[in-house]
Amino acid sequence: MSDLPTFVQGLPKAELHLHIEGSLEPELMFELARRNRLDLPFRSVEEVRAAYAFGNLQDFLDIYYQGAGVLRTEEDFKDLALAYFRRVAADGCRHVELFFDPQTHTDRGIPFAVVADGLLAGMAEAETSLGVGSGLILCYLRHLDEDAAFATLRMAEPYLDRILGVGLDSSEVGHPPSKFARVFRASRERGLKLVAHAGEEGPPEYVWEALDVLGVDRIDHGNRALEDPKLVERLVADGMTLTVCPLSNLKLCVVDDLAEHPLKRMLGLGLKATLNSDDPAYFGGYLGRNWIATADALGLTKAELVTLAKNSFTGSFLPPETVQARLAEIDAYASSSAYSQ
Ligand code: HPA
Ligand code: ZN
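Above: the input record for the complex with hypoxanthine. Below: its predicted structure, written as tokens.
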């Protein structure tokens, strides 16, 4: 008999919603502060962890942007990425499409190239030494204006052959997707994939806008889409992938209890949901922990776990032949596993 953690660990899976700055563990935060001769407003790792109690998204973002201040050099960004990849390699993750927030760094004087070169170096090493492949998604910060997003796209120009797509993150309410219509169009014209956070705290209208105004390829979160049956119908008809983040939703009070999380309901409605960690250093768990805690709380069946694993590849931006190969591996693994639930 295989138990749930063993079954989940061996299941080939991808992570499609991960902010690399949100994988900064307090231990590395202190190490980088020491290396860069910076003062932190905390005296210990325990004190940092104790500060991670959030009432909503903005509470978290304030501390997340503050934490990112220790990232200064190419080596810092490479170390950050590698620390994350080591954790998810152990969870049986095979592919990651990771977000980064260049404006968080360029606005404090760190050149775009330092951020991108450091992350790309970490990603290359993770592929060779850990067997975890990855792609980068550049996120525009939605609390800033569209001109600032355009400036970021211009900075990214020399790197566009190494960037998969663009996304939209940060404070959602009051910053609808339509605010970024022109820069998303310009990004699409440059051959980039498009994703956007929508329906985490924002209303179903923001999800409609992400679909109809931005023309996104994926919706990040999408929880509040469930409030609008017509929107659910549309998402199902489009086969639109939702990158759902249960432990994040719990920590940011999007749900009160993991047992009430809508993931199982989403699958039942025919929505193409995936399971992801969002900001694992802040929300209490990496990819594996999200899978196990959610499966436990919702009683996900083996068939549902297999669907989630398949969705993580069919919802990815990997080439079709790689997706097919991973689907075949998932089927082979599931039929050979003694796990039954
Ligand atoms: N939501 C919006 N913006 C973010 C998040 C999130 O969960 N994490 C990092 N930036
Ligand atoms: Zn997110």
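Notes for the reader.
The chain is about 50% helix and 15% strand.
The mean pLDDT is 97.
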